[in-house]
Design brief:
Helix content: over 70%
Number of helices: 33
Strand content: under 5%
Shape: globular
Mean pLDDT: 82
Largest sheet: 2 strands, antiparallel
Length: 698
């Protein structure tokens, strides 16, 4: 066992090694991409698989009673500063290791087929492996400095992955947007880390909490200053986990390949922010003001994300706003002190959302040959429908993914979301109302996503005839595809539509295998603790250390199964109300029509003035991007242009004017200097005579 703990560093090192090997192969043998695809995919899958096995073994050792393990190596030693690197193995770490490795391996298996014909195949696996390694390093970090290093690596990997198809302007803009937004949060995080180091003299989590508690108990530090430092820490998780107001990057992050979206939304980027808040929870718990801010930020994010998701036509963007809303639930739970429910929801949501994104990727992958490769077509739910008939396995697993966030038992998210709703009502009724209202919206938009994609008739042909912007566009930009090839594709597709209509078909076995694997925890992870042999476990393990017991039903709800379901009737009722409303708007009557016009026709005038449309507000993302563009981008450009004019005409004018005056003065004086002594004497005497009357007057 000791040998295992000493070698747990292999968990992040293995996917990092895979990334390095792939990068070296791409650098030294750039023309061998086609020949080395299978080798590269094997490395990308096998190395993280070994890391996953080690993670499972570590988790088993933890749940069978092994103590918390820490390992440190000295990094910087001086009289004033001591920095150490190492790793920390505790229940939170072991669970996060399993989450990241299982989702990471599943995404790699899926991507082997999804990305096979892409020009950047090896580069994709290089980025994905590095992203997984960075998140694993962050999870194992024992102090804030090491977390910050891996925090930035996770951000860098997300920047590279989102901009994977960088020749597409929208993808290039999206990765820059994510980068800039996260820099704002990371700057605050860095200030908070430095502030707590100034207070406590340590970066280690346990020492931070103990020393802050001691200082507060003895009134040796200002409570105001500690609150400021804690609030400065929070912008990092706000940006990383797409919380309001730094959430704007997450929907645009879907510009990257769909497997990357699954990785970001389930196991890496957004999970990092939740993990940091959970890791710092003992410190935040001492500061009621900070906990209040955390809870309200989570509540606003949850309802905002759900409110925007209800009108999105883009499949991946709808799922992105769903992620934003569910992340708000997690932050809300942590803010009200419901640590176990927040982390449980992180786990259940991760598998559900990975399944949803990979399912959407299967749909998009099947539609692209029919409607074109541009996201406006292949991700448009208006062009889908009837996929349950043509892609039964994808549709079934996708339905599992939508049932889970809706809060339908026995799917995973039901157990964690129900706990958050109960604790929200107990903590503060208005927060409970917000959480319950968001649960209804979640059930509505999730069913709204499922119905037009899987049920009814396939609508791709109808829209292809109506709109002429469906021609295939290369993901590498128009400059990479010759006009001749593009015209041949368009002619072939038009002939296919008139002679032999194309229909979606089921994805290949690798992609389906990944979907089925993710469907298992999505269906069963919430109830697995009910039938787990309790005599094999330390019953106090997660309830005492993590507050999230593997005996999830008893320890989370402290009730028997039937009593639990009885108490869950309100949340289930809310979910079914949302489903019924969605069915009434998008039920059997919408098939073959423009489905999303129905919600727009719904009369919202009883709630708002006629000059304002809730549909338009939601469809345009709450106009938040436009507001930020006005407040920051345009304002900054205005002041930049204004300062540029000042610099050009005033500052440069003074400098240039001085130079010009000196130049002309010199030009004038040079004619008075002929080199003759008699001329100098004449000039001197003349000046003396001219100054004589002035001297006489004085």
């Amino acid at each position: 066992m000791e040998l295992l703990f000493q070698n747990v560093w292999l968990v992040p090192f293995l996917p990092f090694s895979a990334s390095i090997l792939l990068g070296l192969n791409l650098f030294f043998f750039p023309r061998s991409v086609g020949k080395s695809r299978h080798i590269c995919s094997f490395l990308s899958i096998s190395f993280p698989t070994i890391a996953m096995i080690i993670s499972f073994h570590t988790f088993w050792q933890q749940i069978t009673g092994s103590p918390i393990h820490q390992f440190f190596l000295s990094w910087i030693l001086s009289k004033t500063v001591i920095l150490e690197i190492g790793y920390l193995i505790d229940p939170l770490t072991s669970i996060m290791l399993i989450l990241v490795t299982t989702v990471g391996v599943t995404v790699m298996i899926y991507s082997e087929s999804y990305m096979f014909h892409d020009q950047g195949y090896i580069r994709f696996f290089c980025y994905s492996s590095l992203s997984t390694a960075s998140m694993l390093g962050l999870v194992l970090s024992p102090n804030l400095i090491q977390i910050y290093i891996f925090w930035e690596l996770v951000g860098m990997c997300s920047y590279l992955s989102i901009g994977f198809w960088f020749t597409r302007p929208s993808a290039a803009d999206a990765c820059q947007k994510a980068f800039v937004t996260n820099r704002i949060g990371d700057f605050g995080l860095l200030l908070g880390i430095l502030g707590f180091y100034w207070i406590t003299g340590s970066f280690e989590f346990q020492q931070l909490s103990e020393r802050v508690l001691k200082l507060l108990a003895n009134n040796q530090i200002s409570i105001v200053f500690i609150n400021i430092c804690a609030i400065l820490l929070f912008p990092g998780p706000i940006a990383k986990s797409a919380q309001f107001p730094l959430h704007i990057w997450l929907p645009d992050a879907t510009e990257g390949p769909t497997p990357i979206s699954a990785l970001i939304h389930a196991a890496t980027m957004v999970a990092a922010g939740i993990f940091l808040v959970a890791r710092m929870f003992p410190l935040f718990e001492m500061l009621p003001l900070v906990m209040g801010i955390i809870s309200w930020v989570g509540a606003v994010t949850a309802v905002l994300g759900a409110g925007i998701a209800v009108t999105q036509k883009d499949l991946k963007k709808g799922l992105a706003y769903s992620t934003m809303s569910q992340l708000g639930y997690m932050i809300l739970a942590l803010g009200i002190g419901s640590y176990k429910a927040g982390l449980f929801h992180l786990i259940t949501h991760a598998y559900s959302k990975a399944l949803l994104f990979l399912g959407s990727g299967s749909v998009i992958h099947s539609l692209e040959p029919i409607v074109g490769y541009h996201p406006n077509n292949s991700q448009n739910m208006n062009l889908m429908g009837g996929l349950r008939k043509y892609m039964p396995i994808t549709a079934l697993t996708f339905s599992f993914g939508t049932l889970s966030p809706r809060g339908i038992p026995p799917f995973a998210c039901f157990w964690s979301k129900d706990e958050i709703l109960i604790n929200s009502w107990l903590h503060f009724p208005f927060l409970g109302f917000v959480a319950s209202f968001t649960a209804g919206l979640t059930a509505f938009y999730m069913f709204r996503i499922y119905l037009p994609t899987s049920e009814g008739n396939f609508r791709g042909h109808i829209f292809n005839r109506k709109y002429q912007d469906f021609s295939p566009v290369s993901i590498w930009g128009e400059n990479k595809v010759s006009k001749k090839i593009e015209q041949e594709k368009k002619t072939f597709l038009n002939r296919s539509l008139t002679e032999n209509l194309l229909y979606p078909k089921e994805s290949d076995n690798n992609m389906l295998f990944a979907l089925i694997i993710l469907a298992i925890p999505t269906l069963s992870i919430g109830v697995i603790g009910e039938f787990f042999p309790q005599e094999q476990l330390d019953s106090d393990f997660l309830s005492n250390w993590l507050h999230l017991s593997v005996n999830s039903l008893q320890d989370i709800h402290s009730e028997k199964f039937t009593e639990l379901l009885e108490n869950a009737i309100p949340s289930i009722t809310i979910a079914f109300i949302g489903i019924l409303i969605a069915y009434s708007l998008y039920g059997s009557g919408f098939y073959g029509t423009i489905i999303f016009s129905k919600l727009k026709k719904f009369n919202f005038s009883i709630f708002v003035t006629k000059s304002f449309s809730l549909y338009d507000w939601s469809y345009n993302r709450g106009y938040i991007d436009e507001l930020y563009n006005l407040l920051f981008v345009k304002t900054l450009r205005f002041y930049t242009n204004y300062l540029s004019l000042i610099d050009k005409w005033i500052i440069d004018g003074i400098v240039n004017g001085t130079g010009i005056l000196t130049f002309f003065g010199g030009e004038a004086l040079k004619y008075t200097e002929g080199g003759r002594v008699s001329s100098y004497l004449f000039f001197l005497v003349s000046c003396m005579f001219l100054s004589f009357p002035y001297s006489y007057i004085i």
